[in-house]
């Protein structure tokens, strides 16, 4: 999900497009071809994070740690 | 109209996280600004998934099933957003909008049905559109999915209609501020405001906890189908009595957090919107969260507000780290399950170890903050938990700190955790409390080893032959490195002994009444009460009855260790898997049943 992780830079730059100024109404007007790879990355990354084997923890519950 | 060619890489840009905020977060000093930054990123992520969902369905309009087209739902959302962008953003930020998007995107990609037919899951978009429309006060009419007669309006509530099939549709109409939900012959009008309870209407209830200028506002969501970890789940309504109990617990827990960790109290409300309440599990505080439902935690009702405060802090850290992990990787996704962690019984992959370490570092900070309270029993309880968790988190940190699968950011993150935890290791804690904390740590570690490590047949055979030959030790024997752990335990887990020992510190009066721990053996009770010789005899008797019983092997080690350092205790607490396997081999191959203690003492000469 990350493109840049060198400690000398001031910011971590992710590969998640910043849509904070985009309204829902504007969303369909965005360039689909440009959004599609980002969507694929998000889906892949989310799937990876969700690979959680379900089992009980030392204190008895299901949790992600 | 021609599409505006927006390339996210060139014109929209990417989300960023300043390294200094990343470091503060790792050190447990997360600011509210960082949480809001992560929320912004989460909004973009969800918007992208929403776009993907609608793009995917537009190629396949029949996937809407009996519902109106996705374009109609989209148009309603656009209309409602135009009236009230804040309401739209609130619904987009609703934790279970995130889990719905993740779940349904996976269904759409795989082309399969989920718990319900695909159109029901996709149609949650219609329910979202209707909810935004209701809250923004526009007139509308839209059909939405109905699950076993229940209509879900996310973050708002749930309507129950009668005489409905397992899945069907209901019609929702908003007209001049009045909202009617109808299906079949049934019709329900929502109360105004909709947070009031009414016939056939379960509003999502909110708790507002105030302490000074700090305010925690959380929904206790017992109706949203996407509030679980894995699959959609049915509503499980809390009774009014249960809700009131939760409200009191949350108010008291919030008071504690504000009082003991005021800096955290600034940031936590920005990251926690909703709690999924679950029933109490005696002696346990199970809780969970998922990176897809930013802002939510699933929490079993704890025994007291102190436990709840610890759980809120724990889950807040998971939520925040979940947000970070959408921006940056901390490890190279090595899925092998091979690490010991004291907070779970199963071997864990590196990424999950980091998650737990970070969450329990927060728990350590919480208990530390309580060690100085005037309430002496509480201070002693806090000292015990602090001693336990600082030791356990440091143990894990030490094991993974230089792991080759860590990314640069991962290493930096762990150094941040070490920065917070390191100085606490030198803080004084009463010796008897440390001894008990060490005992339950040793119990779990040895319990994990005996269940999840399988010594090689060669080593076991070599030792068995040397024992049978009466050798003082096998010639030239060198203990090899630990084998890879196996996820399937060799013997069932029980935590009754740990619970008993914990009670000696946290609630000694309850210890006397501990028939509520039916799994505890008489040897466990003797150990917890300090009758060590009796405990050792009891565990040996248990092994005579069942020589494979893992809790008895480890219990014997604990009892012997508490009586003073011995070779047998060393072997049983550091290599119990080896002792048990050699014992098994001698029983199976030589028909000999050696004394567990004698065999452990012999192995303890060279393994421990």
In short:
The complex is a heterodimer of chains A (65) and B (608). With 65 residues, chain A is an alpha+beta fold.
Q: How many beta-strand segments of chain A?
A: 2
Largest sheet of chain A: 2 strands, antiparallel
Low-confidence stretches of chain A: 52-65
Q: What gap, in angstroms, lies between the N and C termini of chain B? A: 76 Å
Structural class of chain A: alpha+beta
How far apart the termini of chain A lie comes to 20 Å
> What average pLDDT do the residues of chain B reach?
93
Most extensive interface, residues per chain? A-B, 55 and 90 residues
Mean pLDDT of chain A: 72
Textual characterization of the structure:
The complex is a heterodimer of chains A (65) and B (608). Chain A has helices at residues 24-27, 32-49, and strands at 2-4, 11-17. Chain A has 65 residues and is of the alpha+beta class. Chain A starts with a strand and ends in a 16-residue tail after the last helix. Mean pLDDT of chain A is 72; it is low at 52-65. A five-stranded mixed beta sheet of chain B has the order 9-10-11-13-12. A four-stranded antiparallel beta sheet of chain B has the order 2-5-6-7. The longest helix of chain B is centred in the first third of the chain and has 27 residues, at 32-58. At the A-B interface, strand 2, helix 1 and helix 2 of A face helix 1, strand 1, helix 2, helix 3 and helix 4 of B.
Topology of this structure?
The complex is a heterodimer of chains A (65) and B (608).
Chain A: E1 2-4, E2 11-17, H1 24-27, H2 32-49
Antiparallel strand pairs in A: 1-2
Chain B: H1 8-12, E1 14-18, H2 19-26, H3 32-58, H4 70-83, H5 85-93, H6 95-110, H7 118-122, H8 124-136, E2 140-147, E3 150-153, E4 157-160, E5 167-175, E6 178-183, E7 186-189, E8 201-203, E9 205-211, E10 214-220, H9 240-260, H10 262-271, E11 274-278, E12 287-288, E13 296-300, H11 305-325, H12 350-370, H13 376-400, H14 408-421, H15 431-452, H16 457-468, H17 496-506, H18 508-512, H19 522-528, H20 532-545, H21 550-562, H22 567-574, H23 576-590, H24 596-604
Parallel strand pairs in B: 10-11, 11-13
Antiparallel strand pairs in B: 2-5, 3-4, 4-8, 5-6, 6-7, 9-10, 12-13
Helix pairs in contact in B: 2-14, 3-6, 3-10, 4-5, 4-8, 9-10, 9-11, 11-12, 12-13, 12-14, 13-14, 13-15, 15-17, 15-21, 15-23, 16-23, 17-19, 19-20, 20-21, 21-22, 22-23, 22-24, 23-24
